[in-house]
Amino acid sequence: MSTRTGRADTIIYLDDVTVDYDGFKALSRLNFYMDRRELRVVIGPNGAGKTTLLDVISGRVRPASGRVIFGHHTDLTQLRENEIAALGVGRKFQTPSVFVNLTVRENVELSLRRASKGVFATLFERGDVDDDRRRIDGALEQVGLAAKGGVLAGALSHGEKQWLEIGMVMAQDPELLLVDEPVAGMTDEETARTSELLLGIARDRSVLVIEHDMEFVRQLGAKVTVLHQGTVLCEGPVEQVQRDPRVLEVYLGQRRETTHAQR
Amino acid sequence: MRRRESIALAVVSLVLVAVLPALNALPPSSPFHVPNFTLNLFGKFLTYAILALGLDLLWGYAGVLSLGHGVFFGLGAYAMGMHLMLEIGTQSVYQNALPDFMVWNQVKTLPLFWRPFHSAIFTIVAIMAVPALVGFAFGFLAFRSRIRGVYFSIITQALALSAWLVFNRNEMNLGGTNGLADFKTIFGFRLNQPSTQRGLYVITALTLIAAFLLCRWITRTRAGKVLVAIRDSETRVLFSGYAPANYKLFVFVVSAVLAGVSGALYAPQVGIITPAKMGVLPSIEMVVWVAAGGRGTLIGAVVGAFGVNWIQSWLTTSYPDVWLLFLGALFMSVVLFFPDGVVGAAARLVDTLKRLVPLRASTPSVGPSNLDVVESEPTSPTPLQ
Q1: Looking at the domain covering A2-262, what would its CATH class be?
Q2: Do B236 and A172 touch (CB under 8 A)?
Q3: For chain A, which residues make up each domain, given as ranges?
Q4: In this structure, are residues B71 and B159 in contact, taking their beta carbons and an 8 Å threshold?
């Protein structure tokens, strides 16, 4: 692992990270790194530490030990969530979280990357209205909601809310996107659109996706990391990971058991 | 829409600021004469409306429910009251330079913290600065510790209770249970003169208009949208690069200052301020005004403060036994049937009528949604969060 520390094209590097919830190690001496413009999928059984991994990167959870290096040398473990967001780490939550009492455009407008997002800046700054409009249009175009700009976000369908939130994260112009189970509850058609969307985004940004849906993982065709009990079990292309006996045991094996149990 | 709203605002302002006091100045024999009592009553309602605006900004927009705004109201009222007590001087019952209750309590010298209140300028600054500082300290600690929702409401209630207990103590040298009363003059003007009361009324009306414009400006900036966003999803706001705690602290302080100003205008018009006005019960009543009028709409806060108190003053004089039952019924019916208050219900009614009678089909339904009423209409927020 140490040989990877200095690589110039690493976007995020978790070095020996442990997260301890009252004795339960959600992450246990985890080492994980991702390249710039890489699309990575993290899978693993429930409780493997997938969401905790995103929590650590985005600042929601402070690890008991270890470092989280963003870009060349920024240690994220000392920063607050909004500071990490301002640095260029965007996070899309599992359940759609949008501002239901604001319009779709306003949702994106608030998300736009700005020099300052302090109280007095937002009170007094007018900003470049034309530039804002262009950036909002761009984000809405990308997620296919251009026609719905004036609609209240609360009136969108589940899938549209998910896309809006992705659009909002895109408006933050992040270098790294963290996406937690984006296709949960989506139809097959919506899932296919979402994978296209994420593949498009990954052309010039790094995207880290957590997913359960193996069909969706295959659609993305990206490198897969399997987490198990808070550490990396194995990494590689989808086909290789799916054949790995260890993975079959902890992940697919367990799934077979649960399907048996359901019957 | 914006134009029509401005015209409506100007008309209402004119009536409140100019027409009513002018009618009051007419001789009592005139059929259009507005009695002193009525004008004074309206003045009191308007002070409440100032407070309701701030509370609405906090609760209706940012979704932060404070059950302790009576404290800030009381702080402003007491600051003004202390100055008025000192203005009495030797015209008091005991003809001592000290306020009567101090003579009664055998206090020999004016306590140190009373002394600056001899100055009118200091008093005016304190009316805003004391609630602001208390609000800042309280809000800073609460919001930094990420206390939110019901937990925040409960600790604001605790704040109201403890403030009430503290102000009731005679040792505080603030008049104990009886509070501050028997004011004679304000900045040299005799309070028992109708012209002084009329002047106070006009100042209150102007302050209300200024407060309304301030709140409207805040809600229309991007910061105002951030406040609504915090109500919808605080986590999303945080992960969009904003610090929600700072925004909540900002509106909390703004609302505390408005409550303080409201209290300061209340004291000279009503003539008394006691701890009973800053406890748990009055703080909850303030929330009822906003809820009944329509939270999330600034007009709603004003309508609620005015309407509920008008009904209260009518009921407590005509049917004194009914008032508390009515208050309870009002709160329950708002929670059950009108979660967005009178203004919200009216907006929905107008909307339904428009849909039934498409008078001007070309009117775009999604326009600049700057009219507060329209903005909050489509959703019915949960009554308490």
Answers
A1: alpha beta
A2: no
A3: 2-262
A4: yes
